[in-house]
Amino acid sequence: MQKYAVIVAGGKGLRMGAALPKQFLLLKGLPILMHTLRAFYDADSTTKIILVLPEDHFDYWWQLCGENRFSVPFTIVAGGASRFQSVLNGLNEIDTDGVVAIHDGVRPLVSKEIIDKSFDVAASKGSAVVAVPCKDSLRVKAGDFTKSVLRSDYYLIQTPQTFRVDAIKKSFAVEELSSFTDDASVYEFSGGRIELIDGDYKNIKITTQEDIIFAEAMISH
Question: Region 101-117: what's the mean pLDDT?
Fold first, then answer.
C-alpha cells in the first residue's frame, strides 16, 4: 500500500517564548521540522510526505530549505484555522488508497521502528495510534474534590496516528467539534476502533526550551 505522511506544523510557539515558531527553531544546527521530515524519509523513502504549514510561513520555509540544502521531497499545503482543518487540507492532497501517518511537526525524535510499525498495523487493522503508559500518579476532579485513579488504566497519546486513507478521509468529512482533540478522536467519532501501539518516552512534542535541551541530549546519545 502507498504510504503517506501528513506532517502538521502550524504552531506559533507561544510557550517557547521565542520570536520564531517552534518548528523553525534549531535542533543540533537544523530546524526542528527538518529532523521530523527526514525521520519519515529515512524510514522509507517511498513515503509521500505532505507538509502542512501556515501560508504566511511558506517563504521563510523555502528560504530555510535553500540555506540548509534540504533535499527531502515533500508537497507543501496551506494550513487551516485549526489543527482539524489543517489535517483535512493535508488529507485532501491524497488521491489514492493507502495508509497515512498524521504526525506533529515538532516531534522530531520519532523512531524508524515506530514509523514502520504504525504503517504495518494501520494497514492490517485500520488504525495505529502511538501511546505510552502513564508513569505518574493521577487524580481526577470529582466536584469540589479530587480522587485517585489507577494510572494503569491511562495512556499518554503521541503521534504518528496512522490510518487507512479511505477511512480517515471519511471520518474527517464531518463538522469540527470541540471534542476532537486529535485525529484518533475524529476517527473514533465516526465509529472507527483505535488500535494502540507502543510509543517511546523519547518521542516528545517540543513545546518549551527544556524540551530542546532534552532532544539535543537524546540525539547526541
Answer: 98
Nearest in space to 128 (alpha carbons), one of 154, 94, 101: 101
Place of cell 485532501: 92
Cell numbers 465509529 correspond to what residue? Answer: 191
Is omega for the bond preceding 160 within 30 degrees of 0, making it cis?
Answer: yes
Domains annotated on the chain, with CATH:
3-220 (3.90.550.10)
Is the CB of residue 36 less than 8 Å from the CB of residue 106? yes
CA distance 221 to 218: 5
Give the Cα separation of 24 and 42 in Å (integer).
20
| Secondary-structure percent of the chain, ordered helix, strand, coil, rounded to 5 | 40, 25, 35
- Neighbouring C-beta atoms of residue 196, cutoff 10 Å: 15
Determine whether 205 is exposed, middle or buried from the number of CB atoms within 10 Å of its CB (0-12, 13-18, 19+): middle
User: What are the start-end ranges of the H helices in 27-164?
Assistant: 32-43, 58-67, 83-91, 112-125
Place of cell 494550513: 79
Q: Tens of pLDDT along 186-205?
A: 999 999 999 999 999 999 99
From the list 101, 98, 104, 97, the residue with the least C-alpha distance to 114 is: 101
Using the structure block, give the residue that is written with the C-alpha cell 476532579.
Answer: 141
Cell of 129: 495510534
User: What value does the mean pLDDT of the chain take?
Assistant: 94
- Which pTM was predicted? 0.94
> Is pLDDT at 14 greater than 70 in this prediction?
no
DSSP secondary-structure letter at 194? P
User: Within a 10 A sphere around the Cβ of 87, how many other Cβ atoms?
Assistant: 25
